Amino acid sequence: MEFKVGDKVIYPNHGVGVIEKIQSRVLSGEERTFYTLRILSTDSTVMIPVANTGTVGLRKVLSKKDIDDIFGVLKTDKISIYGDWKGRFQENSDRMRSGEIGQVADVLKGLTYLAQTKSLSYRERKMLDRARFLLVSEIAEASRTPMEKVEVQVDEALAVSLKPKIDH
Description:
Layout (H helix, E strand, L loop, with lengths): L7 E4 L3 E13 L2 E10 L4 E6 L3 H4 L2 E2 L3 H12 L9 H13 L3 H17 L4 H22 L3 H21 L1
Helix pairs in contact: 2-4, 2-6, 3-5, 4-5, 4-6, 5-6
């Protein structure tokens, strides 16, 4: 996938960034082209080899249709839960690194459900917070909606899917 300077992109597990430069450098005798990406949430800069964009999962920000699909995922009553903590944490870590926002939404939904039924470990609590931040910040950026409003929308969507589970 090709990007140009000024494009807003998603860098998995880091969030929304802006392509600030495209530059070539010679490394080990080979010329390589890099995207210089500024992560908006931390104001940090990352250089990503153009040849590795697919490997690292760099992608465009969600479209309006994608946003609707994500809210659909959040509202469904299907919740992915794994038995033991170690397996669940590993699976969720893999999903977070995938760069697929649908996977991040699944992690958010599963950990939100678990948090309502038992206390989460410190690491799972951090992952829940990270999944929430990544989802909310991307939807806010893509829809040009304030993060506070998107947080309310996400909470309302989660309430739809979690209500039947909690009432029983």
